[in-house]
Amino acid sequence: MADLLTAEIRQEFGKGASRRLRREEKLPGVLYGHGEDPLHLELDYHATYMAVRGNANALLSIEIEGEKHLAIVKDVQRNPLSRLIEHVDFLRVKKGEKVDVEVPVIIEGEPAGNAMANAEILHILAKASATNIPESIVVNVEGLEEGAHVTVADLELPADVEIELDPESVVVVISVPTVEVSEDSAEEEATEEAAE
Predict the structure, then answer these.
(1) Could you describe the subunit structure of this protein (predicted)?
(2) What CATH number is given for 3-93 in this structure?
(3) Were both Cys, which of 33, 57, 91, 188 would link to 101 (CB 3.0–4.6 Å)?
(4) What is the pLDDT, as a whole number, of residue 187?
(5) Strand, coil or helix: what is 7?
């Protein structure tokens, strides 16, 4: 189910206008796609933040002057220091339409022994129905042993989600971390052993 955001058409542009909007707890944004002219928007900061937090591909219904537009979040620009959202780009979509999205990989479970799971791919480019975009792709590594790996072909994908990567691409590798012993600590250990 798409979250509902209400937006107004933005009349002023530029950095000064954007700063004024943010001071009023509003957020500049743009809605584009499907060959229509882009709409420059003014959104409520808090409502937008709540709708997009934790989901890079959030599906939203944006109401502009009484008309609703179905859209996904395409880009969120943040201040590099404060991490506050400064601008949001939305892409128009239609029900049933397939869109290209980046879906984060999440590792669950514990490998066997001292082994650790290392993600080789953090985000997977997928093609999914605009109304059924997965929030993440979960890789279960429970009990996997050193040397095991999970490829794209091994992933359990939701229905109607396609990945265009090579099926043999490695997503997660299971390995035991090696501890490098510096020469100083090796000498200290040898001295301690000799003293004993």
Answers:
(1) Part of the 50S ribosomal subunit; part of the 5S rRNA/L5/L18/L25 subcomplex. Contacts the 5S rRNA. Binds to the 5S rRNA independently of L5 and L18.
(2) 2.40.240.10
(3) 57
(4) 61
(5) strand
Q: How distant, in Å, are the alpha carbons of 9, 63, 134 from that of 6?
A: 10, 5, 24
**pLDDT value, residue 196:** 56
Q: Residues 30, 90: contact at Cβ < 8 Å? A: yes
Lowest mean per-residue pLDDT among 6-15, 134-143, 164-173, 174-183: 174-183
Nearest to 164 by CA among 120, 119, 140, 128: 128
Q: Report the C-alpha gap between 71 and 46 in whole angstroms.
A: 18
Contacts of 16 (CB under 8 A, 6+ apart): none
Please list, residue by residue across 17-52, b when 16 or more beta carbons sit within 10 angstroms of its beta carbon and e when fewer do.
Answer: ebeebbeeebbbbbbbbeeeeebbbbbbeeebeebb
State the amino acid at position 167 in one-letter form: P
Same fold, 3-93 and 100-175: no
Query: Tens digits of per-residue pLDDT, 35-48?
Result: 888 999 898 988 98
Question: Exposure of 144 by Cβ count < 10 A (0-12 exposed, 13-18 middle, 19+ buried)?
Answer: buried
Can you give the residue ranges of every domain in the chain?
3-93, 100-175
- The CATH architecture one would assign to domain 100-175 is Beta Complex (2.170)
Q: How many CB atoms lie within 10 A of CB 190?
A: 10
Proportion of the chain above pLDDT 70, given as a percent: 89
